[in-house]
Design brief:
Length: 474
């Protein structure tokens, strides 16, 4: 009987537990009641202060004082496996008191307030209480002087370091125009191009001289040497741009009227080719291969008025002694240019065995600065719009370089020529530079473009000047 009673009790227990074994898993029950279940198994964790008021009015899950064996009975409804702690009225009152006490500033001592203020200043850079942005009434206060939002600084900066650099003017790396120059002579000592104040570009191509009108694009053949063995070795415009001087390989200096396209004079005083020409009002200076420099007064019949001798080749012995002699260059010096805003400053460039550009004070005879160009220096031009100058080079880069003055910092390099740059000349407004190269091309570079407002002011000032030549050329 005892054995039978034990089996009956066991059967009864199994029958009582059947709803628990056949019921859906507890996580499904929680999902049906509370929405999607959190991942992972359900765990018990201490109640946080912020959750203390949650479920305060709910009926406790079990009555205090009941035995543990009776609390393990089957839940009366789905979700009964959730743990709901018991909260007495006393616990809620204590919690409310503690929270109220924490928010009460009346018990803060002056020392504690000073500490909080110091912490706020150290952490934020200002006192939070004195610089609240969100306010219930009135206008929002401005941020304290000198305050900078760190997040704004972090997310408003550009990723590239270039954002911190100063914006310089734009210099196109490609030429504005490219013109063919067939049969241009590849000779380091010749000066074969010049740009007039009337916007005509004169180009010497072997035994001929051509004029290119920049405004209209018209091309005029001004002259061709009678003897095919002779060639044009130098061209130079007078300042006003209405007369062109031409040096030839047969030691002549010719003077041409451009408007009439007629030769005015043929001046002979040299004994070898004339490779360089330069105007100073009505005085034309010509340099010959013998080293002599002659001054010509183009207004009078006896034009040869002075001779400078001192060079041993391609340029000077005799009537006048040099004021200064510079011997630091280690190669041929063909690139020579006066600074337009400092009359005592001269720039010179050395050939392949030197490759240096030097800046001189001709009054004191000192070298103000020097830079290694790493290439043969063929020509130098000072900008009239900026405190800069440009140099043309041969071996090995065949490039043009724009330099800052007086720092001699490299502004940019202009590449494109495939052979050495023989000569440089500048447009009348100073914005463009034309380069003649042994690759038989002329390239026009817009490297000194001027601000439009300053450009108008400069043109207005230039138009007010009258011609300094009042006597006709005979």
């Amino acid at each position: 009987m005892t054995h039978f009673g034990f089996e009956s009790d066991l059967h009864t227990l199994l029958r009582l537990d059947a709803p628990i074994l056949n019921a859906p898993p507890a996580r499904w029950q929680r999902k049906a009641r509370d929405g999607p279940a959190a991942p992972g198994p359900a765990t018990l964790s201490p109640m946080k202060p912020s959750n203390r008021a949650h479920g305060a009015g709910r009926t406790p899950g079990r009555t205090p004082g009941k035995s543990a064996s009776k609390t393990q009975s089957t839940p009366s409804k789905a979700g009964g496996d959730r743990y709901i702690p018991h909260r007495s009225a006393m616990q809620m009152e204590v919690a409310n008191f503690l929270l109220t006490k924490e928010n009460d500033d009346s018990e803060d001592t002056p020392t504690k307030k000073e500490q909080q203020k110091t912490w706020a200043v150290n952490l934020n850079g200002f006192d939070v209480e004195e610089a609240k942005i969100l306010r219930l009434s009135g206008k929002p206060q401005n941020a304290p002087e000198g305050y900078q939002n760190n997040l704004k600084v972090l997310y408003s900066q550009k990723a590239t370091p270039g954002s911190s650099r100063k914006n310089g003017r734009y210099i196109p790396s490609m030429p504005d125009r490219i013109l063919d120059a067939p049969e241009i002579r590849n000779d380091y000592y010749l000066n074969l191009i010049d740009w007039s104040s009337q916007n005509f570009l004169a180009v010497a191509l072997d035994n001929s001289v051509y004029l290119w009108n920049y405004a209209s694009g018209e091309i005029i053949q001004l002259l061709q040497m009678e003897n095919p063995d002779d060639y044009v070795s130098a061209v130079s415009w007078i300042k006003e741009g209405n007369y062109l001087a031409i040096g030839t390989s047969n030691a002549e200096v010719q003077l041409w009227d451009i408007q009439q396209q007629k030769r005015l004079r043929n001046m002979t005083s040299h004994s070898s080719r004339v490779g360089s020409l330069s105007w100073n009002s009505y005085i034309l200076s010509s340099g010959a291969r013998t080293g002599h420099i002659h001054h010509h007064d183009v207004r009078v019949a006896e034009h040869h008025v002075a001779t400078l001798a001192g060079h041993t080749q391609e340029g000077d012995s005799g009537d006048f002694a040099p004021i200064q002699t510079f011997t630091q260059h280690q190669g041929a010096v063909k690139a020579v240019a006066w600074c337009p805003w400092q009359s005592n400053v001269l720039a010179t460039g050395g050939g392949t065995s030197d490759r240096h550009i030097r800046i001189w004070n001709v009054c004191s005879g000192t070298c103000l600065n020097t830079v290694d160009a790493h290439s043969q220096v063929c020509a130098i031009l000072w900008s009239t719009n900026y405190k800069e100058f440009i140099s043309g080079h041969g071996f090995a880069q065949n490039q043009l370089v724009v330099w800052k003055y007086p720092t001699m910092a490299k502004v940019t390099e202009l590449k494109g020529h495939t052979a050495r740059v023989l000569n440089l000349t500048m447009s009348p407004d100073g914005s463009m530079v034309a380069s003649a190269s042994a690759d038989e091309t002329l390239r026009l570079w817009r490297c000194f473009e001027m601000d439009p407002v300053k450009k108008k002011e400069k043109e207005k000032a230039g138009s007010a000047k009258s011609s300094i030549i009042h006597q006709g050329i005979r």
